[in-house]
Amino acid sequence: MEQPKYIPIIGLEVHIELSTASKLFCSCPADHFGKRPNTQVCPVCLGLPGALPYTNYDAVTSTIKFGLAMGSKINNFSKFDRKHYFYPDLPKGYQISQYDMPFCVGGLYEIPDSGFQIHIRRIHLEEDTGKLVHETIDGVKSSLIDFNRSSVPLMEMVTEPDFHDTGSVVSFLKEVQLIARYLEISNADMEKGSMRLEANISLSEEEKAKSGELPDYKVELKNINSFRFLEKAIKAELTRQGELLLAGMKIQQETRGWDEVKQTTYLQRVKEETNDYRYFPEPDLPPIRFSESQIANIKSQIPELPKDKRDRFEKQFGISKDFTNILISDKARSEYFEEVLRLVSLAQDKLGISSKMVADLMINKKLDEQFPEPAGLVKRILEMSNVEYSSNDDVEKAVKSVIITNEKAVKDYQAGNGNVIGFLIGIVQKKLNGKGNAQAVREKLLEKLQS
After folding, report:
1. Looking at the predicted structure, is the pLDDT value of residue 277 above 90?
2. Average pLDDT over residues 160-179
3. Which of 390, 387, 392, 383 is nearest to 429 (CA)?
4. Which of 59, 103, 64, 46 is nearest to 80 (CA)?
């Protein structure tokens, strides 16, 4: 009997810590990375009796900006809910999150250069948990808890299970990271834990997948902090599931982690269902309402996004797709590039300096790393141009000399024979020992001939 062919079914959950000054429900600093444990806490984020939370509006605005960037609809009415589960890093015994009325619903985003569209299910806001620190103390393996991260604003985006390969997953996630950085709502630094990745993975028989029927299980890969690790973890998990299915076994719905040393996924816990969390509306926080004018005002604050800048760079500057992608991958660098071009256009001697030349000097020669300010790079480019090409004065002198000594060619041109312009350019270049910029020589010749 022929073995069935299986298709990967992958959905993503992306957690991004927002770069607000304070935490989501209190005034404690949100910047917790590298700080001494348990020094940025208060009764609210520790969940002490009688402490009342209040909502950080900047975190809400950041979430809505991101939702608009991903093509989501913004709910005019939203609320927070309590999500109950017990874990040592959750001081209240529940997490303030959003259940049935998130800030952003739906959305569609096209992965650059592929045309592959990803459907967004929801984008909501919740508080982060504390952090477990595993250490050996006096020879005893111990787990300590640092609550500095507790209640830091955490935005979560959930996609539909539209992915069928790891390449699309990584391309999409890199774009998500870039969007968060362009919006300046988070540095989305995975090494610092401010962007954490989770993937829900299952395998479906090919015919069922084509009909849109989803498997009756999914395995969640939890809290992975690099694109490379996620790609390897997904591939390993797909292999594990494939072997189980081919052996006729039923796959359990569970949460698994990634072991980089063993290059395998491992069981963390049997996955909970939604009703296990006992969601109910957060009684200490009022619902949040938005008018259409408020949403429009937030939308007006969104800068040019990576996909739009990518298209503009290719059309406006005529640089290659590879160069464009490198420049766009760093917002500050893309702005540096544009400022260099602006300053070059203001310089008196800009002949021979093109956007392609500037991009090449930045990307291949990394000259922008030597000059923190764009004006410094412009000065260096102009110096290089003056070395590579003859000056304006030298070009003008050579052109005048050629026009005086080649009367017949000049008369032929004035009589309508445009072909002689190439002949005259060649003579000028000979006088300049080949150092004349072709465009500059041509323009100067035409200027003199037409006058």
Report:
1. no
2. 96
3. 390
4. 103
Sign of CA dihedral 169, 300, 80, 146: positive
Q: Are residues 320 and 288 in the same domain?
A: no
Are 131 and 187 part of one and the same domain? Answer: yes
pLDDT at 312 over 70: yes
- Looking at the structure, do residues 352 and 428 belong to the same domain, yes or no? no
Residue 1 domain-assigned?
no
Instruction: State whether residue 83 is helix, strand or coil.
Output: strand
Local confidence band at 264 (pLDDT 50, 70, 90 cut-offs): very high
378 with 396, same domain: the answer is no
Q: Which residues of 138-163 are buried (b: 16+ CB within 10 A; e: fewer)?
A: eeeeeeebbbbbbbbbbbbbbbebbb
Q: For position 439, which CATH number holds?
A: 1.10.10.410
- Token look-up 């069928």 returns 164
CA distances from 248 to 3, 157, 214 (A): 11, 34, 18
Looking at residue 348, its pLDDT comes to 56
What average pLDDT is seen over the chain? 90
* Euclidean distance between CA atoms 92 and 95, whole angstroms: 7
Q: How far apart are CA 259 and CA 124, in angstroms?
A: 29
Is residue 176 within 8 Å of 144, Cβ to Cβ? no
How many structural domains does the chain have?
Answer: 3
C-alpha distances in angstroms, 328 versus 224, 309, 408, 446? Answer: 25, 7, 52, 38
Q: Range of 445's domain?
A: 392-450
Does 138 lie in the same domain as 23? yes
Q: Both 269 and 326 in a single domain?
A: no
The structure's pTM equals: 0.82
What's the residue count for the chain? 451
Write down the H helix ranges in 270-391.
Answer: 292-300, 306-317, 321-328, 331-346, 355-363, 374-388
